[in-house]
Amino acid sequence: xxxxxxxxxxxxxxxxxxxxxxxxxxxxxxxxxxxxxxxxxxxxxxxxxxxxxxxxxxxxxxxxxxxxxxxxxxxxxxxxxxxxxxxxxxxxxxxxxxxxxxxxxxxxxxxxxxxxxxxxxxxxxxxxxxxxxxxxxxxxxxxxxxxxxxxxxxxxxxxxxxxxxxxxxxxxxxxxxxxxxxxxxxxxxxxxxxxxxxxxxxxxxxxxxxxxxxxxxxxxxxxxxxxxxxxxxxxxxxxxxxxxxxxxxxxxxxxxxxxxxxxxxxxxxxxxxxxxxxxxxxxxxxxxxxxxxxxxxxxxxxxxxxxxxxxxxxxxxxxxxxxxxxxxxxxxxxxxxxxxxxxxxxxxxxxxxxxxxxxxxxxxxxxxxxxxxxxxxxxxxxxxxxxxxxxxxxxxxxxxxxxxxxxxxxxxxxxxxxxxxxxxxxxxxxxxxxxxxxxxxxxxxxxxxxxxxxxxxxxxxxxxxxxxxxxxxxxxxxxxxxxxxxxxxxxxxxxxxxxxxxxxxxxxxxxxxxxxxxxxxxxxxxxxxxxxxxxxx
Length: 537
Description:
Layout: E1 6-8, E2 22-23, E3 25-31, E4 38-40, E5 49-53, E6 57-62, E7 68-73, H1 74-77, E8 86-90, E9 95-100, E10 107-112, E11 118-122, E12 133-136, E13 141-145, E14 150-154, E15 160-164, E16 170-177, E17 180-186, E18 202-206, E19 212-216, E20 234-238, E21 241-245, E22 248-253, E23 259-264, E24 270-271, E25 274-277, E26 284-286, E27 289-295, E28 301-307, E29 313-316, E30 328-332, E31 335-354, E32 357-378, E33 384-388, E34 398-401, E35 404-408, E36 412-417, E37 423-428, E38 437-443, E39 446-451, E40 454-459, E41 465-470, E42 475-480, E43 483-487, E44 493-497, E45 502-506, E46 513-517, E47 522-527, E48 530-535
Parallel strand pairs: 2-45
Antiparallel strand pairs: 1-46, 3-48, 4-5, 5-6, 6-7, 8-9, 9-10, 10-11, 12-13, 13-14, 14-15, 16-17, 17-18, 18-19, 20-21, 21-22, 22-23, 24-25, 25-31, 26-27, 27-28, 28-29, 30-31, 31-32, 32-33, 34-35, 35-36, 36-37, 38-39, 39-40, 40-41, 42-43, 43-44, 44-45, 46-47, 47-48
């Protein structure tokens, strides 16, 4: 299923002084007749559209050049629909849901994004939001997760094809296979009260009639990140097996739903309005081997090695006595290397009240979890091969290059031999002139150092400095081809060309909204009644 391909940028970081080169070039700028209270930026390409809206009117424009496709007040678009409280665009269906929310009296209208024509409207579906509507492209219809049933309707007419009372909850994730839908249910936080009798279900459903061919129970909660709402679970179908990655791994038979094996744990990284992400590495699959981090009854980490097909436990490492996070696992030849501690993501929501006015601050950032270190194990036996004392004082992250592990301590770069943990070279990060390393990335034959005040490039082969350029303190947003997108707390952007470390930049205006294209080529800036499309290269 196609998702909206632009990512909202609303994260918060500290900022330093600016060292700009040149501004991003403007592809186009358009001023519209009404404000941009709500925006939806669609796919790039011929015929693709985006929209801006208020609670009284909507304008749809071409994503490519900003020209208006259609613009209407809701009272003209849908008679009886005077206001709209929420929107749910489904880009692949070329349709958008418009909601007029009233308790027990919800109204919705589904409108063709390309023409502004009403496709269908209804007042019988209550409690619908974008979280409990799923577009099934293969069947050109919407699955509506309602309190009493799962209802499948034709996308263009709203005609009900079938309903099923055997599936409870919204669809967390799904995969289409041979005319059937394999799907996982979830009770979204804002909709928990809607689904009475909810239980964890993974099912295979015949999309022709809604019959369930099999049903199984999964462990855990399909969660999303606190602020950015990204999924922190995944489902893949490979041949005759379903792999559910969610706090470990659960494997099901695609034909019968039988649980083949599971190695799952409870993640305790979320506490109220603060959560850590990436503190425990996802299962690492190498051929028929899979390495999964788990916890013992004493809440100590171990790494287990399983046979991917049978789930047989092949070995377990000794307990990590003091580790509080293992964010990365690497296999090089006959060694499994665990990164202990390091930089992981946090997201938080802070509520403040001043003179009766409530304000919410949404923050996405990083925190370095200690203790830090590197430890290697023999892949055949699980016995410890080596333990590097060098990173006890700090580590950010690491990546594999051939038979070496490239590691940043924040202050230095290291090339570590996989076989014995010895150092090929050490290079001072300060030589790059952009402060301590926050993160390192691999680009061709170079180490990309995201520093406190910019980006620097070093040779992987010997650690020597190649290029450097200063910018504000920013987080790496996306690496696409040779372009590294950087973003500050105020949603200022820099697009670094990693071939020469030059960059173009964009400074966001107050109270504006920014979206970044999936391919990293464009930034859309929404400012009051104006929309600007900027080129990152």
